[in-house]
Design goal:
With about 625 residues, the protein is an alpha+beta fold. It is about 15% helix and about 30% strand. The chain contains 8 helices and 34 strands. The strands form 7 sheets. The chain has a 6-stranded mixed beta sheet, with helices on one face. Strands 11, 12, 16, 17, 18 and 20 form a 6-stranded mixed beta sheet that branches. Helix 4 packs across helix 5, helix 4 packs across helix 8 and helix 5 packs antiparallel against helix 8. The longest helix is centred in the first third of the chain and has 22 residues.
Length: about 625
């Protein structure tokens, strides 16, 4: 992301910043590194991340609530990749801290006033030296965060730090005003919904991605300045170049970032990529197709302008790399790039898609109604999905054939009725009870920050209580007597908390980074064994007792936070975890394991064994859920 700031002195030798120009391959210089003199910063009204606590990072200014109203357009590919890097746990902690600052700012009504020496406006800061990170490691982490979060268009093109080890999160000057920023955010929300609506009528991932690809190209023109060079204006390099049609167009970063954001909104796995193409800096994407593999996409180079979309760089395999070379983790500083997935040798073949009926019908929550089922005597044939029609959150919900009860922001639980929620307030949790005793109603919520939760049934709670997390989507199905397939065995998670962090010691990888509850520790699809497992409590009075079965060693147990071996090439085959300490009764613990040849197990409760005994099968991945017990209206 090159800007007209060459007159400023770059005060670090970590990287060189370069500029080249050529037709439709704008320069990649995503971030410029500057060191800010300590005396240049006024710390009034900064969002500063303080100590780590059970509920996440604590803000010095408590008026900013980082868990309210954040749009779910994020990607965690880069965060996961950080587990492979030096000081991985600290890098992931810094990433979470940066996210806390950005999320807090996104929901605030702040206008920024603290300007840096180079012209950016300061949102907040995080001290990376306290985490044991070098300046270079901190810069790389910040770059990865920006790749994962293109929805935050206001983040500027500098990585700024001071000699005390503070990394500054800064905004481009034109978005420093709250009114300007909020206006653009509303535009982005509406545009993403417009794109999703265009693509959601398709049944295959390939066709959905193609619809987004074509819609961008038909809406947007590549942006040149008067000299025929790629435009350097900020909007042309962020998602507004695509979404704000009143502007002059986009360059490759904008094409690729907007493409990524829309795919994120549709839950299609994708990766934002930067590197070199045709001798210049460039940006493109990888996205997962219906066969489960990642393929390459360059929306910019497929833009035929008045000729419409081309498909020369659409769903391409290894042949794409003849013209495109991604940056790698061997690059340092702002040129750092996470490992990108390898595409298959051949391009994706759309004829390989198996035609299947749609698994869900999309409705909306406007006026609280959802057509399609009718009264309680009519049974669902497909899973229905409720999404917001013209707002960034769901407020009113009706599920025909069921009474519904909702937990709403600032209101709490309502009564069981035909419709739940309060108009204008975010819905955070629901309960559904079938009107006909011979029926079952299954439902689950897509919760901001957590994704799809497990399926709930007949009055169980889905969503969160006490975390201020909004529900973005709801799925439901009403069945007659019988259970719905693959739904009833899931656990219903309520108040998921960061009461502990955990990580795995993995074959060839060694100690991987710490994970927050609900995320994968270890690997899948790599055939690598977990050799040891750590749990680090973040709550005084809460401990963990682990019992495991280890290759050759047999059954072992541990109360010191680690179980397994190192340097002995022995697989961990089974694991049982129980809660200990005087606060153990305040929490529920669930966990599941990815087992060699078997895949993912069901979630186990505290005290139940995960994995296998005497079958010589390795544990490859582990996910833990820790939730606060809370008083819930039943």
């Amino acid at each position: 992301m090159w800007k007209n700031w060459k007159k400023y002195i770059i005060t670090t030798a970590l990287t060189g910043v370069f500029m080249t120009a050529y037709m439709k391959s704008d320069v990649y210089a995503e971030d410029i590194i500057v060191e800010i003199p300590d005396t240049s910063i006024s710390e009034d009204n900064l969002i500063e991340v303080g100590q780590y606590s059970e509920n996440g990072f604590v803000y010095n200014n408590a008026s900013f609530n980082a868990v309210n109203q954040i749009n779910n357009y994020k990607n965690d590919y880069g965060y996961t990749d950080l587990s492979k890097r030096s000081n991985s746990a600290a890098r992931q902690q810094l990433y979470i801290a940066i996210e806390s600052v950005c999320d807090a700012y996104a929901v605030s009504n702040r206008s920024l006033s603290d300007m840096t020496t180079y012209g950016g406006y300061i949102i907040g800061k995080v001290n990376f030296k306290a985490l044991g990170l070098t300046t270079e490691e901190a810069i790389e982490t910040y770059v990865v965060y920006k790749y994962d979060n293109p929805e935050y268009f206001w983040l500027d093109g500098y990585v700024a730090y001071d000699s005390a080890g503070n990394l500054y999160v800064t905004s481009d000057a034109e978005y420093a005003s709250y009114d300007v920023r909020r206006g653009y955010e509303n535009l982005v929300n509406n545009k993403i919904k417009e794109y999703v609506n265009v693509a959601s009528v398709k049944t295959s991932d390939y066709d959905k991605v193609k619809a987004v690809h074509d819609y961008i190209i038909n809406k947007v023109d590549y942006a040149y300045d008067k000299d025929g060079n790629p435009l350097t204006t900020n909007f042309a390099h962020n998602i507004l170049g695509v979404f704000d049609e009143s502007n002059a167009g986009a360059v490759c970063e904008s094409y690729a970032k907007a493409f990524s954001v829309v795919l994120n909104a549709m839950d299609i796995d994708n990766v934002y990529v930067v590197g070199v193409a045709a001798g210049g800096g460039h940006a493109w994407n990888l996205a997962k197709m219906d066969d489960g593999a990642y393929y390459n996409f360059d929306v910019t180079w497929d833009d035929g302008k008045t000729l419409g979309p081309f498909y020369s760089y659409f769903a391409r395999g290894e042949g794409f790399l003849v013209s495109h070379t991604p940056n790698t983790p061997a690059n340092t500083g702002v040129m750092f790039m996470y490992d990108v997935p390898s595409a298959p040798a051949n391009d994706f073949d759309p004829s390989s898609i198996v035609e299947r009926p749609s698994e869900e019908e999309t409705t909306d929550s406007s006026s609280g109604g959802n057509s399609g089922i009718g009264d309680s005597s009519q049974i669902s044939k497909v899973v229905k999905t409720i999404i917001p029609s013209d707002a960034s959150y769901i407020d009113l919900v009706t599920i025909p054939g069921a009474y519904v009860q909702g937990h709403t922001a600032n209101v709490g639980w309502g009564d069981e009725a035909d419709i739940c929620g309060v108009s204008g307030y975010e819905l955070q949790a629901i309960r559904c009870i079938p009107k006909d005793a011979n029926n079952n109603v299954y439902y689950r919520c897509y919760v901001d920050g957590y994704g799809w939760l497990a399926w709930a049934k007949n009055g169980e709670i889905s969503g969160t209580v006490g975390l201020s997390k909004k529900i973005d989507k709801i799925q439901y199905i009403v069945t007659k007597n019988e259970q719905a397939p693959d739904m009833a065995s899931d656990v219903i998670f309520k108040n998921v908390t960061r009461a502990a962090l955990y990580k795995s010691h993995v074959q060839d990888h060694g100690d991987m980074g710490y994970c927050i509850p609900g995320t994968l520790s270890g690997t899948t699809g790599e055939s690598r064994r977990i050799e040891g497992f750590y749990i680090e409590s973040k709550v005084e009075g809460l401990g963990f007792h682990m019992k495991g079965h280890i290759q050759i060693n047999g059954d072992v147990s541990s109360d010191n936070g680690y179980i397994g071996t190192k340097g002995e090439s022995k697989r961990l085959e089974a694991l049982t975890i129980t809660l200990t300490g005087n606060k153990a009764s305040q929490y529920n613990l669930y966990y599941k394991g990815h087992v060699q040849n078997d895949g993912w197990s069901d979630y186990k409760k505290a005290g139940e064994m995960m994995g296998t005994n005497h079958q010589s099968k390795r544990l490859e991945g582990i996910i833990l859920i820790i939730e606060n017990k809370s008083t819930q209206k039943q």
